[in-house]
Design goal:
Number of helices: 18
Radius of gyration: 39 Å
Number of domains: 3
Length: 564
């Protein structure tokens, strides 16, 4: 019995009305192929639809267009609108230029063609790559050719992603800015979109934010309040005012305003130092476009790529103040000068600020927060005015002391290095040199002892090896000590940046948070009102003080044992 051929062409249903969606998609992965432009896709598909009108009962419901959307992600606005219309029964036919317009994700493409569209009785027509009509040939959506084309479409996207990432990595390493939008305070150079130039309108606002936070003691909430009252547009609103197509999902409704988060972002942005920092985020893969944060150690940083808006000193002070646990009272726009610097000397917790009304006068005190909240520890109470005056006076004395130390060190640096001295380093150096000299005697007699038969050859070689190792270690120790002595003096001169941090405030008349951030780590308050101030650069100060003590001892003939 002869086999009968199987046909894939069903009987035509004259009563079927094809309610059609023409879907168009264009993305960066399509390159410069003009045939993929939205205009050309629309013309091609409209011409095909007109031809189909002559043959079948067909109705155009709408054009669905996603311009600038990748095909690896189905979360496209008009594509989702089309799927909704399919679910609602408004569409039962989809026409595309080619398979890649529907999706470049192999798994998703097959899910739509072999599952969703089949379940929903949706006819799918692709004009090319591959040419198919799921109504005239239902089995075509399961054929090997379609699977191969779908995998090719996805691979094309993967290859494009690799090339784009490689290009971006090269530009980042060269310090070229590749972001879509310039950071607030900058704008893209019209002559080179990969270079940032200062925005004369926004840069002064950035400088004000740093000045208010570092030197005026304003809190981040206080800065937000001031900028909003002054009517200064926040970064999102400012970009929109320039006609930039910028979208921030946090401000989908109403006029965007400044927030503490935006102030913090500005205060922590090293771009304002003139550096380019990129690669802070990445997508998980070319198919999964969820962005994830990258550790700072892996960011691509290139220094001095554009003009800075903020100096390093001010920026560093801002970071120090951000790290401190500070509080503002109620709706105060200003942080108290000592906020974040005070600690109880006994329990180590922060000090709380409180106001007492006595005889119609308000007096501000600092009290141990543990005592206030838990009733343990002790009050450690001290008046604000007395505390601030004591801190100011202590800083003045520290500056005066460092000034005296730097003068003595300058004199010492201009004098020859003493051959003998009482410092630990110089004494250790002398002892090492003496030990090295003493090894010369046994080394010179060792060979003679062996030749005279006083020691065996094995003893000779063993002793010789031990002496050579000792000599090498002594030479290494001497080199290390000489380097430490030289570094100690060089690093303790009046040109030392640590000293300059104090000496530039020689005529200090009042405190501000910027000065405290630069000079002070912590202020410990003792029971009874005593203070201990832990200054920055304490290690450098101790090393310098040790050298000065030795220098004064040498002058007085005390061998380093004199008192300062």
């Amino acid at each position: 019995m002869a086999r009968t051929g199987k046909t894939n062409i069903p009987m035509k249903k004259t009563d079927t009305i094809w309610k059609t969606a023409i879907y168009i998609r264009l993305s960066r992965e399509d390159g410069n192929d003009e045939s993929y432009s939205v205009t050309n896709q629309k013309q091609r598909l409209a011409a095909f639809f007109d031809q189909l009108l002559l043959e079948e009962t067909i109705q155009l419901i709408d054009f669905y267009v996603d311009d600038g959307c990748t095909g690896t992600d189905s979360n496209r606005e008009d594509f989702q609108r089309m799927l909704t219309d399919i679910d609602n029964g408004a569409i039962n036919c989809v026409i595309v230029k080619d398979l890649s317009r529907l999706s470049r994700n192999d798994w998703e493409c097959k899910r739509y063609l072999q599952d969703l569209f089949v379940v929903k009785d949706v006819r799918f027509i692709s004009l090319e790559l591959p040419k198919l009509d799921s109504y005239k040939n239902p089995d075509s959506v399961y054929e090997l050719g379609l699977s191969i084309q779908s995998m090719y479409n996805e691979n094309h996207c993967r290859e494009t992603s690799v090339k784009v990432r490689g290009t971006f990595d090269t530009k980042r390493k060269k310090g070229e800015f590749i972001g879509s939008f310039a950071p607030y305070g900058y704008m893209k150079d019209p002559a080179d979109k990969h270079h940032l130039i200062v925005d004369r309108n926004a840069a002064p606002i950035v400088r004000d934010i740093f000045h208010w936070f570092v030197y005026s003691g304003m809190s981040r909430k206080g800065i937000v309040k001031k900028l909003n009252i002054l009517g200064v547009p926040c970064p999102s609103a400012y970009k929109r005012s320039l006609g930039i197509n910028y979208y921030n999902p946090s401000f989908s409704h109403g006029t965007p305003l400044w927030s503490a988060r935006s102030i913090t972002s500005i205060l922590q942005n090293e771009t304002y130092l003139g550096h380019t920092l990129q690669g802070k985020q990445k997508v998980k893969s070319y198919k999964v476009h969820k962005r994830v944060n990258i550790p700072k150690s892996e960011w691509v940083t290139v220094e001095n790529t554009h003009k800075p808006i903020i100096g390093q000193e001010t920026f560093s002070k801002a970071q120090e103040l951000i790290m401190r646990n500070t509080r503002t009272v109620h709706d105060s726009v200003k942080q108290h000068t000592l906020s974040g610097f005070l600690r109880c000397a006994d329990c180590g917790k922060s000090m709380g600020r409180t106001t007492l009304n006595r005889r119609m006068r308000k007096t501000v005190y600092y009290i141990c927060r543990t005592y206030l909240t838990q009733g343990v520890c002790t009050r450690h109470s001290i008046r604000h005015d007395m505390l601030e005056a004591a801190v100011l006076e202590t800083i003045r004395k520290q500056i005066e002391l460092i000034g005296n130390i730097s003068e003595i060190l300058d004199e010492a640096n201009n004098a020859p290095m003493p051959q003998t001295g009482g410092t630990r380093l110089v004494t250790a150096l002398q002892l090492k040199r003496q030990a090295l000299e003493k090894t010369a005697v046994p080394r010179s007699s060792l060979y003679i002892d062996w030749k005279n038969g006083d020691i065996s050859r094995e003893e000779y070689l063993s002793i010789k090896k031990g002496l050579e190792e000792k000599v090498q270690q002594l030479k290494l120790d001497i080199e290390t000590l000489e380097g430490e002595i030289k570094g100690l003096r060089n690093n303790s001169s009046s040109n030392n940046p640590y000293f300059n941090s104090f000496l530039k405030h020689k005529n200090i008349q009042s405190l501000d948070r910027g000065i405290l951030a630069e000079l002070v780590k912590t202020i410990y308050v003792h029971e009874g009102g005593g203070l201990t101030i832990d200054f920055n650069f304490a290690d450098q100060y101790r090393r310098a003080a040790e050298l000065v003590k030795n220098e004064l001892g040498n002058r007085n003939g005390l061998g380093g044992g004199g008192e300062m």
